[in-house]
Design goal:
The protein is elongated, with a radius of gyration of 58 Å. It has twelve helices and 22 strands. It is of the alpha+beta class and about 525 residues long.
């Protein structure tokens, strides 16, 4: 054989077919030899295939023989009695759980709008970043150099609050100021008064911004009102002097002159009566004396000062009016709170979820979306499951790394009807920023234990319990091989049942012994 030829395996001579006769009969030995060589090549080139085929044929024959000669147990003899179905007594904690799905996210997401109807609307600074926290006294935004100060409250800011206005929004402002440590006066009153104005001044001082500028001309009005008060008071002084002068008695000179006139008249009357030469008649002297006396009495009589008193009253009224005008003018320059410079938010602190504006843009809608700064789980449960829960119930959910984390039911909200699911809110134990990021917007499974044993207890399947003649609960304990069936040795143990959960029930033996691992019969 040459080196480049493929080696072949020759069949033994005894396995080759007899071909001499065939060659002789056909008269062609070469043709017969060619046929035998062809069969040999087929066998040599497909040895593996032939072996597999041979094994398959043998297996088929064996299977037919087994099926023909084996006898089914039912035909050979009667079926054996089945053994007892048993389960071991368990020992450990037992709990009944409510399981529901919950979405993880920040609480109460709301869109924030700023009232800019009373001023500018261009954002100039203090734009918060997503994830920032808004607390009381935080600056949510800066619009044309003025702050938007965050305060706790439910009512939105819808009007400017200044001295003299009243309403629930004023009461909310006072309570918010007190909550951040600023004295706002009487917090039970809904009137914006001097104390409230002073508190607003302190608010801007703490925020680090100047007070809102008073309205144009307000300071000039104050100066004018102050001048009006001074003028009115001067008029009062003049009228008072005139009244005093009008109501005063005669001067000493006038009084002396009147007394002298009376004395002369009396002397003239005496001369007339005594017949003194050159004296007037007695009658004339009496008349002159009476006139002198009347003139003296007239000097001391009360004067009619009605006009002077009326002038004084008018001057005083003018002072009152001037004082009122001054008070009103002064109020116009007292600290006030524009609606565009305060943002009332509930449940502070709050987290900034999205910001819709940036520095230099004009406000035309909501400026940001904020939510509670703490993560909460929001789930839903069927009414039957929800009624098993209560505020304060503890649940367990898994973190992304597989560790378990505790969450407490914080709120239960019934559905609108009996078919609607209840909303269940959970407050998780504190989470790290990394955990919050991993959990945000995910959906987790929360397991709440609504009933649990106090420690480890014995438990058996509910199917293991049977009722005794007196209605007592009992279990059948197997003491021998359960495969003995009805011949197995058993004993009955009377038990007291407890918590049932997950198809099992807590049992406490009251008549007989029962231990962990013992087999009890089920399904009887």
């Amino acid at each position: 054989m040459r080196d480049d030829e493929t080696p072949t395996t020759e069949l033994p001579a005894e396995l080759l077919p007899e071909h001499d006769d065939l060659a002789a009969e056909d008269g062609g030995g070469a043709t017969a030899t060619s046929r035998v060589s062809g069969w040999g090549r087929i066998l040599r080139g497909n040895r593996t295939l032939w072996i597999v085929a041979l094994c398959a044929v043998v297996s088929l024959i064996a299977g037919l023989l087994v099926g023909r000669f084996l006898i089914a147990p039912a035909e050979a003899s009667e079926a054996p009695d089945p053994g007892l179905v048993t389960v071991p007594v368990e020992f450990g904690p037992l709990s009944n759980d409510v399981t529901l799905r919950a979405d993880v996210g920040y609480a109460d997401a709301v869109e924030v709008s700023i009232d800019t109807t009373g001023g500018g609307s261009v954002v100039t600074g203090a734009v918060p970043e997503v994830g920032a926290t808004l607390s009381p006294l935080s600056i949510a935004l800066e619009i044309e150099g003025r702050p938007v100060i965050v305060l706790p409250g439910e009512l939105p800011s819808y009007r400017t609050l200044r001295v003299g206005v009243s309403g629930p929004d004023v009461l909310q402002l006072k309570q918010a100021l007190v909550s951040v440590g600023i004295d706002a006066g009487d917090v039970s009153s809904n009137l914006f008064d001097q104390a409230t104005a002073n508190a607003v001044g302190q608010l801007y001082a703490q925020a680090g911004y100047p007070l809102p500028a008073p309205e144009e001309g307000a300071e000039d009005a104050v100066r004018s009102a102050e001048e009006g008060v001074r003028s009115a008071k001067s008029e009062v002084s003049r009228a008072q002097q005139e009244l005093t002068a009008a109501g005063a008695g005669p001067s000493k000179v006038e009084s002396f002159q009147a007394d002298v006139a009376v004395a002369k008249a009396e002397q003239a009357l005496a001369d007339a009566r005594n017949g003194v030469e050159g004296a007037s008649t007695v009658q004339q002297a009496e008349w002159d004396l009476q006139t002198a006396r009347l003139e003296r009495d007239q000097l001391w009589a009360a004067k009619n000062t009605g006009a002077e008193r009326a002038a004084l009253d008018a001057a005083r009224a003018q002072v009152d009016s001037a004082n009122q005008a001054l008070e009103s003018a002064r109020q116009s320059v007292l600290p006030y709170l524009p609606s565009s410079e305060v943002l009332f938010l509930t449940e502070l602190p709050r987290r900034v979820d999205a910001v819709e504006v940036k520095r230099g843009t004009t406000i035309s809608g909501p400026v940001m979306t904020v939510s509670g700064a703490t993560v909460r789980l929001t789930g839903a449960a069927a009414e039957a499951d929800a009624r098993l829960l209560e505020v304060g119930s503890e649940g367990i959910f898994e973190l992304p790394d597989g560790t378990e984390h505790r969450a407490v039911v914080s709120e239960l909200t019934p559905g609108k009807d009996s078919k609607a699911r209840w909303e269940v809110l959970f407050e998780p134990d504190p989470l790290t920023p990394e955990q919050i990021t991993a959990l945000q917007d995910s959906n987790v499974r929360v397991r709440i234990a609504v009933g649990a044993t106090d420690g480890d207890v014995l438990s058996v399947p509910l199917a293991a319990l049977t009722a005794g003649p007196g209605g007592e609960s009992r279990v059948q304990v197997v003491e021998s091989d359960p495969r003995d069936g009805e011949d197995a040795k058993t004993r009955l143990v009377v038990v007291e049942t407890g918590l049932a959960a997950k198809g099992a029930v807590e049992v406490t033996p009251v008549d007989g012994d029962l231990e962990e691992g013992e087999l009890v019969v089920v399904g009887e």
